[in-house]
Amino acid sequence: MLLLASAALGTWDLAQTRHTILRVYPILGHVRFLMESIRPEIRQYFIESNIEAAPFDRETRDMVYERAKGTKDDEPFGTERDVNTVGHEFLCHSLRARFADDVDPRVRLGGPDCSQPYDIALLNVSAMSFGALSANAIQALSAGAARGGFAHDTGEGGISPYHLRGGGDLIWEIGSGYFGCRDSEGRFDPAAFTEKARMPAVKAVSVKISQGAKPGLGGRLPGAKVSQEIAATRGVPLGQTVVSPPAHSAFGTPIEFMEFIATLRSLSGGKPVGFKLCVGARTEFLSICKGILTTGIAPDFVIVNGAEGGTGSAPKEFEDHVGMPLTEGLMLVHNALVGTGLRDRVKIGASGKVASGVDIVSRICQGADFTLSARAMMFAVGCIQALKCNTNRCPTGVATQDPARAGALDIADKTTRVFNFQRATVASSAQIVASMGLNGFHELSPAALNRRTAGGGTQTYAEIYDWVMPGGLLEAPPRSWLSDWIEASADEFR
After folding, report:
1. Where are the domains of the chain?
2. Is residue 27 exposed (0-12), middle (13-18) or buried (19+ Cβ within 10 Å)?
3. Closest listed residue to residue 42, CA positions, set 378, 292, 386
4. Exposed site from 32, 145, 360, 417, fewest CB < 10 Å?
5. Residue 443 has what DSSP assignment?
6. Which residues pair with residue 304 across a beta bridge?
């Protein structure tokens, strides 16, 4: 029987025309495809070191797992990282070090035009839609957020029953597809928006301009994935492919954008409204600043997403080469708001590879007020970085709609792990700040973050980068900003 099967396989290999390697090496050629299929697992479990894997190394993933489980996450025998390599970053402790006395600091979202401000945690769940993640994963994230008192960004896929069932505070993200608040033509529907935005669970609204994984592209959800639940959540036809356009139809200029934000704030009953973007051209963000100055309407917050990507799948070229990395984008947004005198009105969130207390502290040094995490939160609910998010074959039931795989994810257990991870990570960041001899996160500055530079020296972020003075763009723009500031316009995105 085995010989007959082998003969049949060999005959098929010789006759087929798709794979040359099988025609040249019938039967044996299949070994090559087998080894290729298990290469990621072989590398992850037997070859790579604790600090070399990407996007997240093993050491970082283990730290998240241990904090999520509530087990000890200390490491023996010193760091495995080369602290002398160019680009290594570190924070300086102080002889005035102390124990942290506030391990759950809050940041208020809500400017003068906001009647329902929201005090957001330092670390929150970043945007992940129902559909990209399973129902059980969404519910565990939301329930963990409810237990820990932090926020859960819905992602652009809308507010699902599982977001609400978990009971967490929601940041409702609205993308160019206006899912959950769209009419039959895919345009923004004020009535549908008002109904959902005024739900008690919705604490803030975020307009998604672009995202790190695929800046300049809209999303695409194949019709096969548009189940009855997803269709109802997004407000789209059952079983039909849904494509989000690259840009919004509700506005086309910076002035119109600010007017749209004011409309959302009014329709929501005065809740905080902001926007999320992966930064592209500096001129365009300065155009937004000029739109704020022209209209007098300011967003309550800006969430900066890094081009490092995230949970959303995207073309390889976009993941690798399009959009501004988080560090540069975050500092640009901070400097632009400082230079236009708007920084006190607009809070900044940083979203991109935040997994540790050091990540939180570093992003605040670079200009953020609070942070959000997607992939680390996925680790907390069981993700093993199998890199199969776009195949519907996630082995842990996190990023799949397969009922058997998703059903294996235990909501109660993962709820506790999300809660544990967030609490331990924020507490770690608070202790780092206390060990630096500071009285709180508000005392962090670019001067606190150090980077190893070429030649073996170190410089702080205050020394490496230029920082705009308050109101500097309005009074005397620095030469490095002058041409972009002149070109920026409130009447169009340039």
Report:
1. 106-487
2. middle
3. 386
4. 32
5. G
6. 277, 350
The alpha-carbon radius of gyration of the chain (Å, integer) is 24
Mean pLDDT by 10 residues, the chain (494 residues): 82 85 82 75 68 76 92 74 85 94 95 95 95 92 98 95 96 96 94 98 97 70 78 88 87 98 98 96 97 98 86 65 89 98 97 95 98 95 83 83 87 97 97 97 97 92 96 95 97 89
CATH label, 106-487, candidates 3.40.47.10, 2.60.40.10, 3.20.20.70, 3.40.640.10 = 3.20.20.70
Alpha helices by DSSP H, listed for 70-210, are 135-148, 161-166, 190-197
Using the Cα atoms of residue 335, residue 339, residue 341 and residue 342 in order, give the sign of their dihedral. negative
Q: What is the DSSP string of 339-392?
A: HTT-TTT-EEEEESS--SHHHHHHHHHTT-SEEEESHHHHHHTT----S-TTTT
DSSP 294-353: HH----SEEEEEPTT--SS---HHHHHHSS--HHHHHHHHHHHHHHTT-TTT-EEEEESS
CA–CA gap between residue 494 and residue 483 (Å, rounded): 12
Coil, strand or helix at 152: strand
**How far apart (Å, rounded) are the C-alpha atoms in residues 419 and 258?**
35
Cα gap 156→174, rounded to integer Å: 5
Using a 10 angstrom Cβ sphere, with 0-12 exposed, 13-18 middle and 19 or more buried, the burial of residue 34 is exposed
Q: Rounded to whole angstroms, how far apart are CA atoms 355 and 429?
A: 11
Comparing CA positions, the residue from 2, 76, 155, 106 lying closest to residue 426 is 106
How high is the pLDDT of residue 52?
Answer: 66
Peptide bond into 254 cis (omega under 30): no
What is the distance between the alpha carbons of residues 126 and 352, in angstroms, rounded to a whole number?
A: 9
d(CA 19, CA 430): 57
DSSP for residue 489: B
Q: Rounded to the nearest 10 degrees, how much is the dihedral formed by the CA atoms of 78, 82, 86, 88?
A: -30
Measured in degrees and rounded to the nearest 5, phi and psi for residue 323 equal: 95, 160
Structure-token pair, residue 408: 């294996």
Residue closest to 123 by CA, chosen among 306, 376, 305, 367: 376
CA distance 467 to 348: 16
- Could you say which DSSP state residue 447 is in? G
Among 314, 196, 339, 303, residue whose Cα is nearest residue 246 = 314
Structure tokens given for 186 = 């895919």
Q: Measure CA of the first residue to CA of the last residue in the chain; give whole Å.
A: 69
Going by the DSSP 8-state scheme, the letter that residue 188 receives in this structure is B
For 260, the token pair is 């749209």
Question: 467: buried, middle or exposed (CB in 10 Å: 19+, 13-18, 0-12)?
Answer: middle
Q: What is the C-alpha separation between 309 and 92, in angstroms, rounded?
A: 29
CA atoms of 56 and 311, how far apart (whole Å):
12
